[in-house]
């Protein structure tokens, strides 16, 4: 059940769209990727504004790619809200109901319901052109949800808003989605949004999905370098695989020998050129002897509750995320370590 | 209902009302009785102030025949319409064919000859069609009309028109689209023969403009654009009658003025030939002829008609010029083309 | 989701691998009615006349007439002159229009709407009134010259501008530059001043700023306005006929008029009309393509603060603009005002002209004049009722279609702009002769003819609006379940409301001012105001003609005021 995207292909001059994944019933899937990677195209394809070259789309078991856009029962929230300027809030929300031929009494009730859902109870008669960005977005959401769609698509709905508003609306969207348990696909280039909102995240690049996983796993166990560096901050160092010690892989790097516990299924061969990756927040001052790296502080960024320390070691740069109470000054030598379980290994 | 809706309803309501009102006015006559005589005439004949409103009721009453007069533009267009409908004539009578257009009408073979017994009252020289396909009903003379308040020494001949003191002071019409225009061209040919082109090249610098029709030309004249315009000898009479002014005067030239005789004819294949013949007889009668001076501003062909006071101001030329119809027929095309070439340079 | 710059997809193209064939069915359905109407009441009569130019003496299809035409030096000269004066007029119009477009785009002032309404009137007036007004104002004995002669004590008229090429160019530019102003300002308005501000901060200013930053952005608007103005000047008729001074300056349309009026020589006349139609078609196509381009830019919102005009006029550059405004006002308004002023007279007592409402009394006291007025109202309304749906449907299909050659099709749909109304009238006469029932002489013949002449202007306005629509709106509607018809009815049509009102006003104005085709199709019961004007002129009644003309202007003015009230633009 839910949305199944089956072997969809579409050729473009810039890239080739190749998709095969699913959004589970009631799930909130965040589609994350850099601009131009094809996520908006994916959305439009699902909505029915573009045809794929091959493949099929299924919603709750039924095939929908053969249906025209207006029969797919998919709700869409656009980046620029796209509210109908000639209608007021109530009529905007009720548009889909009108299209489906709802009786006026039922429609009225439903519209009230939705106004309450998005916390815009008194706004019914307002002209949409007089609403603020945040209010417009909420109306757009209500409008998309009114005709009880089987799928909700959101195309970077918050990117036009300021940071604080974005945070607030983010919560609203999540709340609404949970309340209705509606299958949702959310496109964004903002990784924080993806991490906060998604039940799962699909990271996309050049028309295909690199990894689709829970936020935690994507964050901690990225499948490749692209995913690793796209989300959050990354520390990477190139090296050569020397040997294996049981579970651990031993890698020779310019900053020393590092032991990494690879979770990938691939077998790494000896002497493979590899990249070791770990997150700034997993670095510890002092700590164990394994994976100890020595270096010099070159920059400090104070962030209130914590600080980012940039360390240089034998030509390589690392970022450490440490608590505020650790006092360091540029130029200090520093010694830190990271647990093998917090490290990932990628082929170069 | 909100404001917008009320506006819409009001607008639609007004619209419906309007449509109803005017639609009534227009659609109703569709149920009129079948006309028993159809006439094509030029605009000023049919207009409110023209002859038709006066003469048609008289005819209808006298003969009990319902008449429908349709205006189709100017005289040239009347003939064109007749030619267009050659194969299935919609009208019985076509009105406005003058002595200069006769050749074309005859060529196209759209007319049915009819010799009215009333022609005996008409002077011989006015019967310009020997075949009697066209029966004359009025005539006039082309003349240059000038504004005596502006021009103090008007010319006395065609030749004098070319004098440099009249530089850009004369308005004439295009012979291709205007019957006075054609009349004037033929006038110059009647006087200068083959040397007419040379005359025109001398006249050209004095022409302010060559308009397509008489209306525009006369309009410019009365607006004061130029003090001289090609028109009719009867034009001054109009201004005396309706504006009580003698300001505008017509010029008689030494060698004479060119004559225009207007006529009407029965169309070949007319739906109501009998009624048509009766009408032709009618136009030569007092009832019709008497109305001509003050409505059409031409001379009635019947010399017995009493002329109104104002026509004293319409000078009657001693000599009238005319080119034979046959000559016009053979050379018209050539003359006009040469003229066009000259003035387009 | 549609990025600006991408053409908008219609509900029936792009994006459905549907089992139903509804893809092409919907637009075909929409087109059925209009197509039928046009075939019967435009293409058929047109063809029956133009066929003369495409067949030889024996009636077989041949290019003999056209090739003879194109080899005749007289006609080549005519065609050449036609194009030449159109080019010059267009250049002048654009030059005159740019300052106006700038003012309209960048400044606010009261009475904007009033001015827009006023400047559009000459466009729909019957030519004879326009020309009369011009003559009365600019002529040798016109208001202007008399004023100058009185002021400076001159004997001869100071400005001898009429009856020459100068007059043609002048009249063309002054009557067409409002179009340039409207089209260019519509685009200019939507270009945010921030691009210019950015450029200024980088050191660009004055002419350089205009040339490098502003001009490239408004260029599509300028070019599309130029294409349209070119067509109008190409096919201009009355202005050339009267103000040109005679046979020396003759254009295509004038020759067609002569040939059709005089000799029914429909062979050469048709061939000429064909040449004119082809040239117009080319430029119509160019116009449509350019419209598309400028429409994308116009999808941006235009909400930003505009300074008041009064502040500009006080600045050093202000003198120039003030002069410009004064000049434009005088030239556009003066001829019209002169006509109106002249109508309040009656000639009486020894040629004196007294101020009087005589003619207005006559007009409103019933009789033929009032009837003419009512008829014009009636025809105008009927024309709107027909032309509006016709033009809107065609514009909708045209602007949303994406197949190859759709723009050519759109150009063809606007063909009546390139066809002289004389030819159309003639066509009606010729084509319906053999019909079982009398079309000619009926009121609907006139309505149909007016509709055919007017609907391209509805297309023009509607099409521009449909193109300007943000692509995401229809997509949103589709996602909410709107099928092709619902999309049209519930979204696109309401959004195009102001454009439709503009289109309706244009259709009304054009119908009310139409004269050439009407002259061929009317009868005593169906006299309209323009026909009446012609008749009045034909019998020395110039005051009466001006009075009727003033009434006409009033109609048009009121109607155009409604456009701008309803927030319409070009």
Keywords:
heterotrimer; A: about 350 residues; alpha+beta; Rossmann fold; OB fold (Dihydrolipoamide Acetyltransferase, E2P); 6-stranded mixed β-sheet; 8 helices; 20 strands; elongated; B: about 350 residues; alpha/beta; D-Maltodextrin-Binding Protein, domain 2; 2 domains; 12-stranded mixed β-sheet; 13 helices; 12 strands
Query: How big is the Rg of chain A?
Result: 24 Å
Helices and strands of chain A: which structural class? alpha+beta
Helix and strand element order of chain A: EEEHEEEHHHEHEHEEHHEEEEEEEEEE
Spatial separation of the terminal alpha carbons of chain A:
38 Å
Shape of chain B: globular
Name the helix and strand elements of chain B from N-terminus to C-terminus, one letter apiece. HEHHEHEHEEEHHEHEHEEHHHEEH
Mean pLDDT of chain A: 88
Strand element count of chain B: 12
Classified by CATH, the class of the largest domain in chain B is Alpha Beta
Structural domain tally of chain A: 2
If strands are numbered along the chain, what order do they take across the biggest sheet of chain A?
6-7-8-3-9-10
Biggest beta-sheet profile of chain A: 6 strands, mixed
Assign the CATH architecture of the largest domain in chain A.
3-Layer(aba) Sandwich
* Separate helix tally of chain B: 13
Tally of individual domains of chain B: 2
Radius of gyration of chain B: 23 Å
Instruction: Give the end-to-end Cα distance of chain B, rounded to a whole number of Å.
Output: 69 Å
Low-pLDDT regions of chain B: 28-32
The CATH superfamily of the largest domain in chain A is known as: P-loop containing nucleotide triphosphate hydrolases
Oligomer: heterotrimer
CATH class of the largest domain in chain A: Alpha Beta
Can you lay out the helices and strands and say which pair or pack?
The complex is a heterotrimer of chains A (348), B (345) and C (570).
Chain A: E1 3-11, E2 16-23, E3 28-32, H1 39-47, E4 54-59, E5 62-63, E6 74-77, H2 89-99, H3 104-117, H4 133-145, E7 151-155, H5 163-180, E8 184-188, H6 191-197, E9 200-205, E10 208-213, H7 215-220, H8 225-230, E11 235-245, E12 248-253, E13 256-260, E14 273-278, E15 283-285, E16 292-302, E17 306-313, E18 316-323, E19 333-338, E20 344-347
Helix pairs in contact in A: 2-3, 2-4, 3-4
Chain B: H1 3-27, E1 37-41, H2 43-46, H3 52-63, E2 67-71, H4 75-84, E3 93-98, H5 102-108, E4 111-112, E5 134-147, E6 170-173, H6 179-192, H7 196-203, E7 207-211, H8 214-222, E8 228-232, H9 235-243, E9 248-251, E10 257-267, H10 273-283, H11 286-289, H12 292-296, E11 299-300, E12 320-321, H13 325-343
Parallel strand pairs in B: 1-2, 1-3, 6-7, 6-8, 10-12
Antiparallel strand pairs in B: 3-10, 4-10, 5-8, 5-9, 5-10, 5-11
Chain C: H1 22-54, H2 64-71, H3 73-106, H4 112-124, H5 127-138, H6 143-152, H7 165-188, H8 194-201, H9 206-234, H10 238-243, H11 252-263, H12 266-297, H13 309-314, H14 318-343, E1 345-348, E2 352-355, H15 358-364, H16 368-400, H17 406-413, H18 421-431, H19 443-468, H20 472-479, H21 484-495, H22 497-513, H23 516-521, H24 529-537, H25 542-565
Antiparallel strand pairs in C: 1-2
């Amino acid at each position: 059940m839910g949305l199944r995207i089956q072997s969809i292909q579409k050729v473009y001059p810039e890239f080739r769209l190749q998709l095969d994944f699913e959004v589970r019933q009631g799930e909130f899937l965040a589609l994350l990727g850099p601009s131009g990677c094809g996520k908006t195209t994916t959305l439009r394809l699902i909505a029915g504004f573009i045809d794929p070259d091959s493949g099929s789309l299924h919603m709750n078991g039924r095939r929908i790619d053969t249906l025209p856009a207006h029969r797919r029962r998919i709700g869409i929230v656009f980046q620029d809200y796209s509210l109908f300027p000639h209608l007021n809030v109530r009529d905007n929300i009720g548009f889909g109901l009108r299209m489906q031929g709802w009786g006026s009494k039922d429609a009225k009730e439903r519209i009230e319901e939705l106004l309450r859902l998005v916390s815009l109870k008194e706004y019914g008669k307002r002209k949409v052109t007089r609403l603020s960005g945040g209010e417009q977005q909420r109306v757009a959401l209500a409008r998309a949800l009114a005709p009880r769609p089987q799928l909700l698509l959101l195309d970077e709905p918050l990117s036009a808003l300021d940071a604080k508003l974005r945070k607030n609306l983010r919560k609203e969207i999540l709340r609404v989605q949970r309340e209705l348990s509606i299958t949702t696909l959310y496109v964004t280039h903002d990784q924080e949004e993806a991490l906060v909102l998604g039940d799962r995240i699909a990271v996309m690049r050049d028309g295909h999905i690199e990894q689709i996983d829970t936020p935690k796993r994507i964050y901690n166990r990225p499948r490749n370098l692209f995913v690793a560096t796209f989300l959050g901050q990354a520390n990477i160092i190139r090296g050569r695989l020397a040997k294996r010690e049981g579970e651990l892989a031993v890698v020779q790097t310019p900053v020393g020998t590092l032991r990494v516990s690879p979770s990938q299924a691939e077998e790494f061969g000896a002497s493979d050129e590899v990249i070791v990756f770990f997150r700034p927040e997993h670095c510890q001052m002092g700590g164990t002897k394994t994976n100890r790296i020595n270096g010099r502080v070159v920059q400090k960024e104070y962030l209130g509750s914590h600080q980012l320390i940039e360390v240089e070691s034998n030509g390589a740069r690392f970022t450490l995320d440490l608590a505020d109470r650790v006092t360091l000054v540029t130029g200090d030598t520093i010694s830190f370590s990271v647990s093998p379980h917090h490290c990932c290994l990628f082929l170069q | 209902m909100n404001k917008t809706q009320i506006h819409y309803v009001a607008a639609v309501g007004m619209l419906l009302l309007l449509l109803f009102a005017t639609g009534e006015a227009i659609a109703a006559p569709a149920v009129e009785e079948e006309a028993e005589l159809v006439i094509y005439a030029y605009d000023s004949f049919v207009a409110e102030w023209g002859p038709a409103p006066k003469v048609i009721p008289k005819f209808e009453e006298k003969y009990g025949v319902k008449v429908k007069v349709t205006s189709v533009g100017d005289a040239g267009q009347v003939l064109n319409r007749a030619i267009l409908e050659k194969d299935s004539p919609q009208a019985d009578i076509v009105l406005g064919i003058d002595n200069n257009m006769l050749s074309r009408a005859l060529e196209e073979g759209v007319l049915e000859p009819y010799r009215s017994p009333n022609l005996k009252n008409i002077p011989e020289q006015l019967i310009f069609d020997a075949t009697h396909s066209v029966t004359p009903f009025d005539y006039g003379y082309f003349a240059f009309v000038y504004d005596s308040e502006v021009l103090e020494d008007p010319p006395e001949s065609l030749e004098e028109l070319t004098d440099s003191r009249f530089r850009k002071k004369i308005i004439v019409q295009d012979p291709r689209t205007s019957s006075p225009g054609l009349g004037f061209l033929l006038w110059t040919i009647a006087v200068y023969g083959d040397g007419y082109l040379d005359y025109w090249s001398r006249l050209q610098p004095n022409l302010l403009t060559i308009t397509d029709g008489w209306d525009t030309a006369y309009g410019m004249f009365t607006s004061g654009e130029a003090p001289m315009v090609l028109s009719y000898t009867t034009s001054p009479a109009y201004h005396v009658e309706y504006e009580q002014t003698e300001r505008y005067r017509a010029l008689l030239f030494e060698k004479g003025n060119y004559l225009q005789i207007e006529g009407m004819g029965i169309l070949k294949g007319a739906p109501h030939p009998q009624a048509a013949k009766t009408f032709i007889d009618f136009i030569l009668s007092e009832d019709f002829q008497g109305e001509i001076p003050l409505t059409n501003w031409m001379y009635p062909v019947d010399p017995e008609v009493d002329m109104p006071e104002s026509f004293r101001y319409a000078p009657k030329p001693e000599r009238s010029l005319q080119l034979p119809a046959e000559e016009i027929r053979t050379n018209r095309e050539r003359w006009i083309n040469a003229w066009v070439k000259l003035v387009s340079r | 989701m549609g990025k600006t710059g991408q053409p908008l997809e219609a509900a029936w193209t792009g994006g459905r691998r549907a089992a139903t064939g509804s893809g092409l069915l919907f637009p075909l359905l929409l087109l059925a009615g209009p197509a039928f109407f046009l075939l019967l009441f435009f293409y058929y009569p047109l063809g029956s006349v133009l066929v003369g130019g495409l067949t030889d003496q024996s009636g077989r299809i041949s290019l003999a007439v056209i090739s003879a035409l194109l080899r005749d030096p007289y006609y080549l000269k005519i065609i050449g002159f036609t194009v030449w004066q159109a080019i010059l007029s267009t250049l002048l119009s654009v030059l005159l229009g740019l300052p106006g477009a700038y003012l309209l785009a960048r400044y606010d002032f009261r009475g904007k709407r009033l001015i827009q309404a006023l400047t559009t009137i000459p466009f729909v007036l019957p030519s004879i009134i326009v020309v009369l007004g011009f003559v009365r104002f600019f002529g040798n004995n016109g208001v202007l010259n008399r004023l100058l002669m009185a002021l400076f004590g001159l004997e001869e008229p100071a400005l001898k501008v009429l009856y020459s090429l100068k007059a043609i160019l002048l009249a063309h530019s002054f009557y067409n530059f409002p179009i340039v102003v409207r089209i260019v300002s519509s685009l200019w308005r939507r270009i945010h001043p921030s691009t210019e501000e950015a450029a200024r901060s980088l050191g660009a200013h004055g002419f350089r700023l205009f040339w490098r930053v502003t001009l490239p952005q408004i260029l599509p608007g300028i070019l599309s306005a130029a294409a349209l103005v070119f067509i109008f000047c190409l096919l201009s008729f009355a202005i050339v006929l009267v103000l040109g001074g005679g046979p020396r300056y003759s254009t295509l349309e004038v020759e067609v008029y002569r040939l059709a009026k005089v000799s029914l020589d429909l062979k050469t006349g048709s061939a000429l009309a064909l040449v004119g139609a082809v040239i117009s078609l080319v430029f119509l196509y160019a116009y449509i393509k350019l419209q598309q381009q400028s429409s994308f830019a116009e999808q941006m919102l235009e909400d930003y603060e505009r300074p008041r005009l009064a502040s500009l006029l006080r600045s050093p550059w202000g003198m120039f603009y003030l002069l410009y405004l004064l000049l434009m006002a005088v030239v556009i308004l003066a001829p019209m005002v002169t006509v109106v002023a002249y109508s309040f007279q009656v000639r009486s007592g020894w040629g004196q002209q007294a101020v009087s409402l005589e003619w207005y009394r006559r007009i409103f006291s019933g009789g033929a004049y009032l009837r003419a007025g009512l008829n014009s109202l009636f025809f105008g309304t009927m024309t709107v009722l027909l032309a509006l749906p016709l033009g809107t449907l065609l514009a909708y299909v045209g602007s949303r279609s994406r197949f190859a050659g759709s723009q050519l099709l759109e150009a063809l749909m606007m063909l009546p702009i390139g066809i002289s109304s004389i030819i159309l009238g003639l066509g009606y006469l010729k084509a319906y002769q053999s019909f079982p029932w009398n079309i000619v002489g009926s009121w609907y013949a006139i309505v149909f003819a007016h509709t055919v002449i007017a609907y391209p202007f509805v297309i023009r306005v509607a099409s521009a609006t449909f193109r300007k629509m943000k692509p995401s709106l229809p997509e949103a509607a589709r996602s909410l379940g709107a099928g092709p018809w619902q999309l049209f009815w519930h979204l696109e049509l309401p959004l195009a409301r102001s454009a439709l009102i503009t289109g309706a006003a244009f259709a009304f104005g054009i119908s009310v001012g139409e004269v050439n085709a009407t002259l061929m199709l009317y009868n005593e019961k169906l006299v309209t105001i323009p026909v009446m004007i012609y008749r009045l002129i034909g019998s020395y009644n110039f005051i009466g003609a001006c009075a009727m003309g003033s009434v006409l202007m009033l109609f048009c003015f009121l109607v155009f005021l409604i456009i701008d009230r309803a927030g319409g633009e070009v």
